[in-house]
Amino acid sequence: MDRSTTVSSPAQEPLLWAMAAATMEKENPTLSSSSTTSSFTCEWNYDVFISFRGADTRSDIQKIPYLHDSDMDLSQHHGVRLNKKLDKEQTRKEKAEAHLYTIIKVALDADLYEQIGKDLYFDLVDHDKVRRFRIPKQTPFTLFKEEVAREFGIPVIYQRFWFWAKRQNQSYRPNRPLMPQEETQSVGQLAEQVSNKANNAELKLFLELEIGQDFGLIPPPEKSKEDLLLFFKLYDPLHEKLCYIGRFYVPASGKPMDILTRLKEMAGFSLDEEIELFKEIKFDPRDMCERVGKDFPFRASELEDGDIICYQKACEVGNGVPFRYRDVPSFLKYAYNHKTSHKYHEVLDLTTLKIAFHHATEDDVVIHTIRLPKKSVVVDVINDLKSKVDLSHPAAELRLLRISDHKIMKIFSIREKIEDITKYGTIRAEEIPEEEKNLGTDDKLIHVYHFKTYIEQNQQHIQNFGHPFFLVIHKHEELVHIKLRIQKKFRVPYDEILKWKFASVRFHRSKYLHKSVYDEFKKGSTYGDWEQYLGLEHGD
Fold this sequence. Notes:
Its EC number is 3.4.19.12. The protein is α+β, with helices and mostly antiparallel strands. It is built from twelve helices and 24 strands. The radius of gyration is 35 Å and the shape is elongated. Mean pLDDT is 80; it is low at 1-72.
């Protein structure tokens, strides 16, 4: 059928629609108007008939869709901003509903292959980088397994989940598989069973999958107390690389000698190659890795489910070859020291700032922690902050202010060193309003602070509160118009703004205003007279 689009006249329209409907009903009887149910999803493979009601008076040029580059930029910006806002709302919603859900983090062998030797060397996995599920607490674990089947494409019959456990030596390993009776419980019950956090417990699991000889999935084997699940890492001293190479079950009464052939095959070594085995024990507060005797039973070496054995070619141990880290223990010690030193120098070389960002059109004030090299300047902070916040428009400019006692004390120069401003505590960041960038000859920029008064020892005192701000005032602009602008800024009800009193305040002395504001303020520097402000007197 011709897929072109046909434009009909109003006179033709009823006939054309009737023809289309008749054709659809003939080819798909279930689409007739008398049909109330359908057992399938239909596809609309028919011409589209469009009717324009009335004459189109636009010129040919006007009919061509047209979009400025700036419009596209603005559209993209609003799209990004909308996504950020939705993400923020979703995060808030998740926090508010956290007590209703259980977070389940599922690690697979693929995560171990991906992370070990790249993101980590000790233990097996970083759980913050594995697949995360957010499941209602009352959900039976059996239903969660069906969700895993849909997500990973792994049928339930092939799934066996293990609990992780933190040991006394601070290592974190798969501890034991879930028992059949445990899988009948809810995910919330299981999380509380293995976590100290009753309300926001996480459930961390290892998903064991077994591959058959034809490389297809097979059900996990029966496991007895005699069977130990061990994980293996391979070390290459020439390239100074440690990687995950696999896992398998061994009998607790068996000996490492019994699995040497399998380990060599996994590593691609020749069968006559001698290898050395080491047990990874812990790395906090210091690393510990011990040699494993090949002729001692696994049980005698105190190996248990979830333990890690690292191995390498024996000829590379103590043969005089000038490797920097010739064996597993020396490499793990290096990795531990390097990690510790790296974190230490990161802390030494960075300056941390707390920035309170005030959005131009929203009431929310969000605190951002920014870490930058000590030699950075204010403009670096601004550029970093722009990547973290929602701006009112793409070209918005930011400034950093020092606020003290609810007053603006300083506007930081963009070239000021950040190590000189950390002493001020939390710094305020805000967009610079467009009207401030385009001040007229007679315009004035003044400080505006909220305040209330109280009597102490028969004297009236002023106490500031809330967020201070700048305001552009125009010549001949009366107080009533300024009130309306401030009402719009704070979205204050009209009957409430009528109760506010406006005053010119200088050196803690106030002069209440009733009509003119402009003449009360001198035209000083860019940001006006720092000792004088327009005071808004009202309740908190």
